[in-house]
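Structure ticket #2291
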Amino acid sequence: MHAFVSHWSASDVLRLVGEAPRWPESARLLPPAKDCVSGRRDFRKCRIGERLDSLGLAARPVDLIVPAKSARSSGGLVRAHLWSGIVPQRSMLDLGGGLLSCGAELIVIQLCSAQSKLDALLDAHASAVRAEAELAAGLGLEEGPTIDHPLKWERIRRLIAAAVVACEFAGTYRLPAGEKNVSYRASRLMSSASLASAIAEMGETSGTRRAARVCDLTLEGSASPMETVLGLMLTLPVEYGGFGIERPQLNCPVDVSSCREEGLADRDVVTPDFLWPEQRVAIEYDSDEFHAARGAGQSARDATRANILTTLGYRVFRATSRTVRAPEGVALLARQVSHALGISLEPTTPLQELRRRKLYLELMPRTKA
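Resolution: structure written out below.
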């Protein structure tokens, strides 16, 4: 039988394994339901859990995709998801013996396709609105609380969660999986172009439409989790809680050989963390964790890089973990960068300010500075 690991479980497999032979050779449907692991009994019979344990994935339940609703069975070991659509060419990792796991592009599309019942969310929202209104009335406050419709925010939140995963796999770091910590200098596993290609191969569905939106939000080349957080906070649309600044290039090399010839640089290429090349604006993010992983000399190398860019006429902003750890610090940096770019930040409504706070809280727990 075949077991197709998917969604969040496949994200962890990809973080642990990185790469493996690819399946299928051409786009196709999943095998018939009788040939797919779909529940706890099949999971135990095929000893899938032991094989995943050997890879370092001990978390349960395991997300699996199955080809038919009638075959779907979930329990403490397995969380089965219906997948009746196309499996794009070479979109899965073949781990041998019938065990397959979704690759980066297919994971993002699955996260955009996943829907769950939201009745409990609506009930909790109604209770929270009543409690907040009663509290405001008891305190003599005339203005009512700013309320965000839970379904609208939940749709945004899911897009953001998928965009975070897309930025990771289009970047050069990996979030923790199993007993691993954040790892750096990893190979990129996807790009916006490869995600767009997989979306086109699958055809238009509600999930691929959302995935296409995530494709537009993805920042390629992020070198650390906090670069992703800062990049998304700066560039996501205002209605999502971001500052709506145009997307920069991340860790893109700049030729500075002319400076070296004049004795103003000690290298031919520098790679700023964030770069708006046309406006000649850059941000250098100084991460304590990233510097510790890269060695004691990283801070000095960053300073030299910033000085070279300044010599070339770039406006270079420095951001630290303390900057990003406070919403006010991110807002100040956004205003400074937008001023340097020659643009004005879009004015915000109370609802958009609420979403900005919610976005910040959504992004920050996923990372360490």
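Closing remark: The first strand starts at residue 3 and ends at 5.
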